[in-house]
Write a structure and sequence with these properties.
Rossmann fold, binds 2-acetamido-2-deoxy-beta-D-glucopyranose, eight-stranded mixed beta sheet, 355 residues, alpha/beta, 12 helices, 10 strands, two-stranded parallel ribbon
Length: 355
C-alpha cells in the first residue's frame, strides 16, 4: 500500500499536466482565431480609417507599416487631420494672399483702347450708391475750407457718423508731403484719431494735438527687401497691412490716399491681402495720365487693369458714393488729350459690409 500511493499520485499528476496542457492548447487555439478579429479594429483605429490598405496585411510587422501608411495617407489624404490648418471660422483662410487680381473680360470682342477707356471712365464717373451727408461741418459748426473734395459719407446707415460721435473713429491719411492738411485737421477736430503718413517730416513720429499724429513712413505695396532694410538705418516704407499690425490697429474708418500714381499698386495690395476688409471708407485720388508705378502693358491692358481693380472693390461690397473730376489738372488720359478725361479723379467708396 505504501508503494501504491505514490503511483496513484503520479498518475493523477500526469492527468493534471495533460489536462493543463490541453487547456493551454485550447486557449491558444481560441486566441489565434480571436486575435485577428480583435486586433483589426485596433489597427484600423491607429490607421485613421485607412482600412482598405490594412486589410490585406495580416503579418506582424505590418502594424508598423500601417502607421507609416497613415502618416503618408494623412498628407495626401483629404479629410485627415494633419493636412490642413484647423478650420478657423473663415477669417484665417481668407487671409491667404493672392498674387493677381482677376481681370475682367475686355470691353469689346477685340481689345481696343477706345472701348476700355469709355467703360472705365463711365465707371469712375457714376456713383453706385447715394449719400446725402458728405459734409463734416454738419457735425458741429466746423467751417470747411477744404479745396479738394475728400468726401466721406456721414449718412446714419453707415457706421462712420456714429464712430465720430462716440470718438472711436480712426483716419489714415497717405500722402507725399505737399498737400494741404485741412481734411485731416477737420477730422481730428471732429474727434477722429488721425494718422498721417508722410515721408517728408523731420521726426519719426510727431503728435500734434490730441488726435493728430504724423509718422515718417510711406506706404508701399510691398515690404522692403530685408537685405536692403538691414543696411539702411531707417527704411521707412511699409505695406499698410504691416503698419496696422505694428500699430495694433484692427480697423481704419477712413483711408485717404493722395499718392501720385502709386495708388493703383497700393490698392491692389490692399485687395490681394484683404486689408480692405478692415477699412470703412476709401477716399482715393486716382491718376490716369500715365499707367502708374509698376503698371505695365499696352494702353488697353492698363485701362482694363484699372477697371478690374475697381471691380474687385465692388466685389468686396464697396460702393462708390462720390466721384469728382478735377478740372484744374491737365486734361490727359494715358499721355493724350482724349476722351474728355481729366488726369485726376477723386473717388470715395463706402464698405457696405463694414460694422
Ligand atoms: C457744408 O455745409 C455748410 C453748412 O452746413 C455749407 O455752408 C458748406 O457750403 C457745405 N460745404 C460743402 C462742401 O458742401
Ligand atoms: C494689348 O495687349 C493684349 C495682351 O497683352 C493683347 O491681347 C491686345 O491685343 C493688345 N491690344 C492692343 C490694342 O494692341
Ligand atoms: C467734358 O467734360 C466736362 C466736364 O466733366 C463736361 O462738362 C462736358 O460736357 C464734357 N464734354 C463732352 C463732349 O463730353
Amino acid at each position: 500500500m505504501a508503494q501504491e500511493r505514490p503511483r496513484w499520485r503520479r498518475l493523477a499528476f500526469r492527468l493534471c499536466l495533460l489536462s493543463a496542457a490541453l487547456l493551454l492548447c485550447l486557449q491558444l487555439l481560441a486566441r489565434r482565431s480571436w486575435c485577428p478579429e480583435e486586433k483589426r479594429p485596433v489597427a484600423e483605429a491607429a490607421a485613421g480609417r485607412a482600412a482598405p490598405l490594412s486589410r490585406g496585411t495580416e503579418r506582424q510587422p505590418a502594424a508598423g507599416r500601417r502607421r507609416v501608411t497613415y502618416v503618408r495617407n494623412g498628407r495626401r489624404g483629404s479629410a485627415a487631420p494633419r493636412c490642413c490648418p484647423p478650420q478657423l471660422p473663415g477669417d484665417r483662410r481668407k487671409k491667404t494672399a493672392r498674387w493677381h487680381i482677376d481681370l475682367q473680360p475686355w470691353a469689346s470682342p477685340t481689345p481696343s483702347l477706345n472701348y476700355e477707356a469709355l467703360r472705365f471712365l463711365k465707371y469712375i464717373s457714376t456713383s453706385q450708391i447715394s449719400c446725402e451727408h458728405m459734409n463734416l461741418s454738419s457735425l458741429g459748426g466746423y467751417s470747411e475750407t477744404t479745396k479738394r473734395p475728400w468726401s466721406i459719407c456721414l449718412d446714419e446707415r453707415f457706421s462712420l457718423v456714429h464712430r465720430l460721435r462716440s470718438k472711436q473713429c480712426r483716419l489714415y491719411s497717405l500722402g507725399l508731403g505737399n498737400e494741404d492738411h485741412q481734411f485731416e485737421l477737420s477730422m481730428a477736430n471732429s474727434g477722429c484719431e488721425v494718422h498721417r503718413f508722410d515721408p517728408s517730416i523731420k521726426a519719426a513720429h510727431i503728435q500734434e494735438g490730441q488726435h493728430l499724429w504724423y509718422h515718417r513712413l510711406s506706404i508701399d505695396w510691398r515690404d522692403p527687401n530685408p537685405a536692403i532694410a538691414a543696411h539702411k538705418l531707417h527704411s521707412n516704407t511699409k505695406k499698410l497691412g504691416t503698419i496696422l499690425n505694428e500699430f495694433g490697429h484692427q480697423k481704419i474708418d477712413v483711408l485717404k490716399a493722395d499718392v501720385e500714381s502709386a495708388e493703383w499698386k497700393i490698392l491692389e495690395n490692399l485687395v490681394l491681402e484683404d486689408v480692405v476688409e478692415q477699412i470703412g471708407q476709401l477716399v482715393f485720388e486716382v491718376h490716369v495720365h500715365w499707367p502708374g508705378f509698376e503698371v505695365s502693358g499696352n494702353d488697353s491692358s492698363v485701362v482694363r487693369y484699372w477697371y478690374s481693380l475697381l471691380r474687385e472693390l465692388e466685389l468686396k461690397d464697396f460702393r462708390l458714393f462720390h466721384t469728382y473730376k478735377d478740372l484744374s489738372k491737365p486734361q490727359m488720359f494715358l499721355k493724350k488729350e482724349a476722351f474728355n478725361a481729366s488726369s485726376c479723379y477723386t473717388l470715395s467708396w463706402v464698405n457696405t459690409r463694414w460694422k
